[in-house]
Amino acid sequence: MVERRPALTLLAHLVLLLGVLVVAFPVYVTFIASTQTTQDIVTSTPMSLLPGGHFLQTYRLALFGGEGSYGNKVAPALPMLRVSLISALLITVGKIAISLLSAFAFVYFRFPGRGLCFWMVFVTLMLPVEVRIGPTYQVAADLHLLNSYAGLALPLIASATATFLYRQFFLTVPDELTEAARIDGAGPLRFFIDILLPLSATSTAALFVIQFIYGWNQYLWPLLVSTDSSMYPIVMGINQMFTGGDAQNEWSVIMATAMLAMLPPALVVLLMQKWFVRGLVDTEK
User: At CA 157, angle to CA 154 and CA 158, rounded to 5?
Assistant: First the structure.
């Protein structure tokens, strides 16, 4: 029996509220700065925490570009958002597809060296992109993948983590289900599409959220393979907006672009929150 303790309940809620404030306050300051002019941000000490009156003007300038308050040209964020969205979707879908197929092969097919192949894939968890970035860049350059969506996505779609998670899930599928499908005349592909894919829907949804955020936040790899400004993702584009000292940066536009960069991952998490939680905690498998 769980005993109710009002003091502990109050303490827990206070800790949660404090955590929310710590996380939300920088986002709030970013939004407030995006509604003010750059002059107000630079000259005000401290900066006002009340919304300004330049919301539409600043976000229009951030999305479509134009001339900034110092006469410098502001690059539009809309093309960068498109590049980030396409590359993140390619990385996410590619990771899930390859991980599903590889886990299916490891669990349901018997071939020499199956265990060795799986552990070779699993060992790549200890080799992040930063470790193998030199050879990977050389391969991408030799295949003429620079400044392309293929170059942004293909080197990042292999995922040992997702393969391991799908393999562990497939191992929990009852053997009776496999035998019933075989008796009904279902081949490997039909068994995979009609049975395994629906059963793994919640796990796929959870991985989709995680991998989308991973692909959206990529910075180091796009920095190497994207030398054309038309292929800059939004995270890289924000860094390019810092042109000099505090007085030379379009801080209001930078903050507005940062807010725009936060929207797609936040929307994915909010829209798929139910499936994401079920994929992480569902035990009815």
Answer: 120
